[in-house]
Task: structure prediction
Amino acid sequence: MSNAIESVLTERRRFPPPAEFAAAAHLGTWEGLLELEEEARKNPEAFWAARASELWWDHRWHTVLQWQAPDARWFVGGTTNVCVNCVDRHAASWRRNKAALLWEGEPGDTRVLTYGQLHREVQKTANALLALGVSSGDFVAIYLPMVPEAAIAMLACARIGAPHTVVFGGFSAEALADRLRDSRAKLVITADGGWRRGAVVPLKDNVDKAIVDTEVRNVLVVRRTNSAVVWDPKRDHWWHETVDRAAPIHRAHAHDSEHPLFSLYTSGTTGKPKGILHTTGGYLTGAAYSSRLVFDLRDEDVFWCTADIGWVTGHSYVVYGPLANGATVLMYEGAPNQPGPDRFWDIIDRWRVSVFYTAPTAIRAFMRWGDEWPARHDLSSLRLLGSVGEPINPEAWMWYRSRIGGDRCPIVDTWWQTETGSIMISPLPGATPTKPGSATRALPGYDIDVVRKDGTSCAPNEGGFLAIRRPWPSMLRTIYGDHERFTKTYFGEIAGMYFAGDGARRDEDGYFWIMGRVDDVINVAGHRLSTMEIESALVSHPKVAEAAVVGRPDDLKGQAIVAFVTPRSGVSADEALATELRAHVATQIGALARPEEIRFADALPKTRSGKIMRRLLREVASGSTTRGDTTTLEDQGVLERLAQSFAHED
Ligand code: WT7
Result:
């Protein structure tokens, strides 16, 4: 262990906000932060009304919050339009000719869209969608690579009140089909393909497979890779014909504050992904407020959040949050190591990126690739760094701070979830002293705690459940089509509060330390996956009798997927089968869910009541010796056979 890291770990070293940064920040003092917290605590509704007032509203709300647990309605009676807030009002200001989007494709092609140009594009797209029969309330699925049309499509949907459901381009046709059926989408926006590590991802082909047996009637296709695609002229429409031909003026109507804005599917504890539903006024208030405060956004910034728009981070911090603030956003299509391991540093250098937001798994990969790659580039434009998706280990934090931030940029480690809609726990870069590995404190306005099962607060450093005591504007409103599951999952665990599913503790300074999921959800390279979803994929294979999936600690990805599989009798458990099963999971869900390791066993350890003992499997998977009580094991021999089981690694 290096000396610097040792001192962080042993002295609990704190990093005060750099003086130069604090002097210019929106919120540049600790006292200022405490004041804002106090303001929010004293009168949360007045606090949120003030935040919402920074947006444009057609009609002001009559009631800030209606709360009947677990149902919240924010800014009741208010009407607004998310697209007008993110685009029109800037296009009508001095920002008209300011860059909204700086885009770079993986092959190196670039595009720049000013707010004025973005305004024209969203209006044409809105008109094209209306002409294709989309009306307010219809779901539109977006299955696109990271191209400007992805942001344009989202904004155009918001403009006409058609909620979007973005499906990550790395998901398979099967996973896309599930989401199309669940959301009952009428139209899909996709591309002929997307570039990833020099190869084409066949998005249109996947859509063709996925839309069988769905309500999809039209497919709007962006030409990106010039790949050959199968074309159904009654159903398929090229973006460059349909949108380019559409009228450039679209008068936006205001939508109710609680009108659905989007749903986004994420993994829960069961096999079926949940469509997390967000609405208009509250969501935008949370996204805009957090962007401004946490990233200290200013007009001269170039803000780069590396997340794909297929994840909530891409929704809130590539599109809605920064654009609501009139910021300049950088968007990059491809892989971080294409053509070389310094692609990101090269992008920061050439575009003069000032605020950079990425995931710990990426930072660990950069560390592994070596210091020489960032060292080749001028990173002096950076002034602030962010991290999201999983706990960041202190080693990675220190490397990020020194090698990327030149020991000059504060780091904001931001905790939040698809469900929370926007950042909930994070340092404020000009005000909060940071501790490597801690997301520090809740943002002003959020009442977050670590509690025991009975809802009482844990003592300092006592581990418990992360919970949110009061409703907040950007909270999910429901799981689309399954309100009962929403109530049970989030408000059925700890009486009277929102249960986040994370374990955590607070230290003597009240700082949060997130310890990871307490349910059957695993976090692989910042992607949330359900062990049951992967198990269902495995048992859908004809050669599999039973499967259990667990996560084991992984240096690079945070967690790696380990699958224990019992083949059907007569099937030989060999390398070929392992390869076949990994490919099967990739087709069922996507490459991101492919198990790192498959272990075959003739039986899985179960309790007498037939429950698979996951704790034991986790211990076997991580190679630790089994501790604790195993007396309820139905068949003691199973465990030994498992430990020696035939392992297949990537
Ligand atoms: C889960 C949410 C919304 C961000 C992208 C992931 C974990 C997220 C942190 C962090 C520790 C974190 C939690 C959370 N997580 N950020 N800064 N420190 N853990 O969104 O897919 O909805 O996953 O990611 O476990 O519950 P998501």
The mean pLDDT is 94. The domain at 525-649 is CATH 3.30.300.30 (GMP Synthetase; Chain A, domain 3).
